[in-house]
Amino acid sequence: SSFVSFQFSFSSSLLINHQLSINNDNRLQALANMEAEQFHVPRVKLGSQGLEVSKLGFGCMGLTGIYNAPMTDEEGISLLTYAFSKGVTFFDTADVYGSHANEILVGKALKQLPREQVQVATKFGVFKMEASGMIAKGTAEYVRSSCQGSLERLGVDYIDLYYQHRVDISVPIEETMGELKKLVEEGKIKYIGLSEASPDTIRRAHAVHPITALQMEWSLWTRDIEDEIVPLCRELGIGIVPYSPLGRGFFAGKAVVEALPAGSFFATHPRFHGENLDINKAIYLRLEIIAKKHACSASQLALAWVLHHGDDVVPIPGTTKTKNLEENIGSLKIKLSEEGLKEVTDAVQLEDVAGLQAEE
């Protein structure tokens, strides 16, 4: 297909430049390396409305600074275009990330990519952030004005997947969905998503217009959606997009577990604080032991655990580093049997996790 051929030529140009300096003596090894680097992320249907995405998405929130300092535009664009070259084509942003800066950065990256081969997801509905938490807004007027703002910041004619970031309980979901349905009919958005919604809200929203995807936190140590939300999504044909699939970075590697960066967002999270962190380190060490059996890292095993929950599950880990992106992609190569999946699940007993889950 044109998609595959474009990606092959796009990534091949990167690889050829990378390989030119290699001596002839190492040509066979270089070819072997090139073959390994040609692994592409599989593509899956997200939901039952026709949206096709990469099996692994890219959560863009961190690019404009929340866990670390913001990346420069050049760095962020380079990382996103590199992700695309590897087959990661599903980019997740939101109007509230970086006070609009995140959408603007993603928009700049899109100018360097074939628009029709990228699936852009963004969100509306967080009206403002206060010390007490997020203030949601879901009126029809706000839906429309938010969409227009995102279209302009992203520099696109349409948004592939448009989520309500947080549900406004003061506005009937039917009103919010009614306006989203109009935006679909006008071609401004292609598919509708919800984030952090209750089962009742999901059913009511889906009755107005089919929901394509539900974004919820899901990781080895955050599993509360498994009892009711996941079965409901499968009943209705809604795809599941787990955010923070590496437990807010806890399972991302020893650097997080052993030494938090100064001023990091993680330092304020209950599970990363004081004696909670000391207790939770034992969980990480258990996972690390199992990972050695699979010849992978603990972070790859944690992400593979999420990926193995079904083709309708498309996690969106974020990173600011190419090596972490490569590691995330590598998690797709890990095959877990039912026994292997259970071993990983059992290694992280929820009653052993110290500290409360926190808001996104």
From TrEMBL:
Residues 55-346 form the NADP-dependent oxidoreductase domain. Gene3D superfamilies: NADP-dependent oxidoreductase domain. One of its GO terms (cellular component) is cytoplasm. Keywords: NADP, Oxidoreductase. It holds the Pfam family Aldo_ket_red. GO terms for molecular function: oxidoreductase activity. This is NADP-dependent oxidoreductase domain-containing protein. It comes from Linum tenue.
